[in-house]
Amino acid sequence: MSQAYLTLHELLPPQELAAALDAGHVSRKAHPELPLSIYTYTRTCQYERVWNQVTRRCRGLVADDATGEIVALPLPKFFNVGEHEAGRPYAPALPDEPFEVYDKVDGSLAVVFHYAGRWRVASKGSFISTQATWAQRLLDGKDTSALLPGVTYLAEILYPQNRIVVDYGDRRDLVLLAAFAKDGTEVPLAQAAADWQGIGSVVTVWPAMPLAELLALAEANQLPGGRPAEGTDAEGFVLRFESGVRAKAKLSEYIRLHKVLTGVTERDIWRSHGIQRFAGLPAKQLAQALGCSASEIEASGGKPLDTLLEQVPDEFDAWVREVIARIEKDVTDRERAIDEGYQSLSHLAVDRGAFARAAKALPDAAVRPALFLRLDGRPTELVTYRSVRPEASDPFKTDEEN
Description:
By secondary structure, the protein is α+β, with helices and mostly antiparallel strands. 39% of the residues lie in helices and 17% in strands. The mean pLDDT is 92.
């Protein structure tokens, strides 16, 4: 094994790295105490699919600011088999060579490296994220004497509060995925696993099989041997070819659940609940109030929330119910305020001008439009519902890696 560390400029062309940083496709975050920086591709990079030599490599890459030495070398970004088969420019055809099949572990990446006399952990994008801090505490309580300084160990962080989709129960673990020597060569998994004893478990290796068979299992939500698996049981598979190229194949049910859990916001729930709540109104009127199209409402079959809640984890279901309860409480409170406001002005109902002047003087501006609907004997609930639309918010789960 070479004793020379790769440097940042040897691994990545300096001008291309600088351009990626300037464009916002790669972020650089400094360690709070040490002269280290972690380089990670950004959400913008993911969204725009700006995958190149620099962005693929910056997936938790840690370098010494003073020497330029790379002290933590993670796995490069790799893609779904379907992206390779679709001829994406960033995902060329997979090599025609044997491959190993690993379990795809559904947690957060741990980048484990040695620096300044101590083993340290970063997550994909931070030295001090919640996940990195949790993993560091776990690692500090383990016997790390077998780990080899200069080797980067890549593991998956699993603990209940960090659940993405797959339910690992009460498991708390650092699952070894791969390791790289300081010169950039990959350490055989069996060799790295011997170092990892006493730290955590090692990723499951499945029997070798033809690619078509593996993809058929993923589509049918099955594990090798034919055992059925829901999206909460397993994520899928990682393929590692002899040349070191990796690709992934996810269970179709995991993909569906992941999209739900990491894509649905409170505003989505407000809109879906509104479609069902006001099902008797014309689609065009409802679409205008909820900020969607009439065709979307018709395509949902009038029950988008029911469809959303089919076969989701209990935690997500409970979250959706909590959001709906809060929305309904806001509607009730707002309707009560409208009632009170109208009662205070009802004596002016015969004089629309006087009514308008008095309404304008009310302290709660949010209820004013509804007062004129009441004056005309028209329902106010749809206007009220529109007024309690949640602000843009994060989804139920965030999972930047996927």
